[in-house]
Amino acid sequence: MNKPRLVFFYLLLVAISVIPTAMAAEINQQAPDCVLKPFEKAGEVTLPQWQGKVVYVDFWASWCPPCLKSFPFLNDLHQRFSDQGLHIVGINVDEKLSDAQDFLARVPARFEIVVDPDQQCARSFDIQAMPSSFLIDRKGVIRHIHLGFRSGDTQEIEAWTQKLLQEDTVNP
User: Partner of 55 for a Cys bridge, out of 126, 136, 144, 152, CB 3.0 to 4.6 A?
Assistant: First the structure.
């Protein structure tokens, strides 16, 4: 290979490496606008439709052991804070809907479940762990990110939830 061609390919490689890839969801940034499907129903759901509420977005999968532990906590969180403006949405990322159905038969959800069939939303949020949770304020801004789930995590998550519910009510 001649030298000018080698230099061209090197510069091309450098240029490609600095082009940003899909934006990862980060704290203090607007949450990605995802189009999701209601679980076992027709239609579409988007995250902006809940603007004005504090939204707890939880990416989960049937094969995720920590998800088994997080669902009872999320059910409790939903029961205690939904009347104050909290909306919990569980986004399933399983390849087969039947896997999610089996999981939910064992561990029912009392909060909204949707599916991300083409993984567009998971890519937009740049999911790195299961479960991955994002607390979004009433203006649609990501305020807290939580990866994984252990029983000791509940106090931190609840504290953030209460903070956003109070903060957004006081400072509209």
Answer: 136
